[in-house]
């Protein structure tokens, strides 16, 4: 109940901001937009539950794009894998379909932009500021251009997905406790090896299948941000959580490059501005909600381990070998150092 109340307050307060700024003109535009039949409709689909901050972010985006376009563009939202998993959605984009989903560097690596895979490496970022510095860098811009040549256009990179933690059906108090455990990860090479180096046995699986797999003990655990772990109710069948924060997960939203380029410049601007503004909103909701999700998990019987710096150093030491696997991933020479420099990290 506390989470619902808190989220409602956040949503109500944030939704009032643009309306207050625009005054009566905004209301007139809204009335006009409601009578216009949209010329362009984008289907935004994802595996997450609509109750998660991502769902709130795209609800806000529906309002933003309607206001910006005067009702000429619209967004339809399909949570809970209603339109399929991430890979099938990306395949649809490559056919030019008007579909959008969230994806990350690990998936882009599988689609040919090998260097972007490093963005999902374990313990790459020291803090969130490094993420935001990186997405404004020349290196990142170059990677996005290469991705567009492959048929995929990133429209926003400023969405926090959250720090990824590990939920298991047996206690994990240090990296050594992961040895031999089957841990679900998204189905891509980077995240699989990223968890294997920690001593676990990674298992690629669609998010919608994880609850049953944990329930039947097909797997021993799963990793994801707190909002997703709670939103999918995975703690009901895996009651041990270690806050290892192995990936600071900023996520991107991607569409078909061919479809995007078929839009007018004005329509493109409406879409990109909407996605980025909705990202800022998502981040506010997420940051406010995470502690509430965590408390709810504790209240519902989850044992939470907040590891010491010494324990986390053990994770980092294990993770270091991942960055020696560049040849396996097809990375450019010196990629780790290049990316650390682009994010403003001091070595």
Automatic annotation (TrEMBL):
Alphabetical list of CDD domains matching this protein: PBP2_TRAP_TM0322_like
User: Which Pfam families does this entry report, sorted A to Z?
Assistant: DctP
Q: Where is the signal peptide?
A: 1-23
Q: Name one GO biological process term.
A: transmembrane transport
Taxonomic superkingdom = Bacteria
Alphabetically sorted, this entry's keywords are:
Receptor, Signal, Transport
NCBIfam families linked: TRAP_S1 (NF037995)
What family does this chain come from, according to its entry? Belongs to the bacterial solute-binding protein 7 family.
Name of the protein this chain belongs to: TRAP transporter solute receptor, DctP family
* Native source species: Roseburia inulinivorans DSM 16841
List the lineage, top down: Bacteria, Bacillati, Bacillota, Clostridia, Lachnospirales
């Amino acid at each position: 109940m506390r989470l619902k109340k808190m989220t409602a307050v956040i949503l109500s307060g944030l939704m009032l901001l643009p309306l207050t700024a625009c005054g009566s003109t905004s209301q007139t535009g809204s009335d006009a937009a409601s009578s216009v039949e949209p010329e362009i409709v984008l289907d935004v689909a994802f595996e997450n539950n609509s109750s998660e901050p991502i769902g709130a972010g795209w609800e806000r985006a529906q309002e933003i794009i309607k206001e910006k376009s005067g009702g000429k563009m619209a967004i339809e939202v399909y949570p809970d894998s209603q339109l399929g998993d991430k890979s099938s959605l990306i395949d649809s984009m490559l056919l030019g379909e008007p579909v959008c989903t969230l994806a990350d560097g690990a998936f882009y690596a599988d689609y040919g932009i090998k260097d972007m895979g490093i963005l999902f490496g374990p313990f790459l970022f020291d803090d969130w500021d490094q993420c935001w510095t990186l997405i404004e860098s020349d290196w990142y811009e170059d990677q996005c251009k290469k991705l567009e040549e492959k048929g995929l256009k990133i429209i926003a990179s400023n969405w926090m997905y959250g720090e990824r933690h590990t939920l298991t059906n047996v206690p994990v108090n240090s990296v050594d406790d992961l040895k031999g455990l089957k841990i679900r990860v998204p189905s891509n090479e980077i995240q699989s090896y990223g968890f294997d180096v920690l001593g676990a046995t990674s298992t690629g699986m669609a998010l919608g299948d994880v609850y049953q797999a944990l329930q039947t003990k097909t797997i021993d655990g799963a990793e994801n941000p707190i909002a997703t772990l709670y939103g999918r109710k995975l703690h009901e069948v895996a009651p041990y959580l270690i806050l290892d924060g192995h990936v600071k997960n900023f996520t991107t939203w991607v569409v078909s490059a061919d479809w995007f380029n078929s839009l007018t410049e004005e329509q493109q601007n409406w879409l990109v501005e909407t996605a980025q503004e909705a990202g800022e909103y998502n981040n506010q909701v997420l940051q406010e909600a995470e502690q509430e999700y965590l408390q709810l998990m504790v209240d519902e019987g989850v044992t939470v381990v907040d590891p010491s710096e010494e324990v986390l150093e053990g994770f980092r030491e294990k993770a270091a070998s991942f960055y020696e696997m560049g040849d396996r991933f097809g990375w450019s020479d010196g990629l780790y150092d290049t990316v650390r420099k682009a994010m403003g990290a001091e070595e």
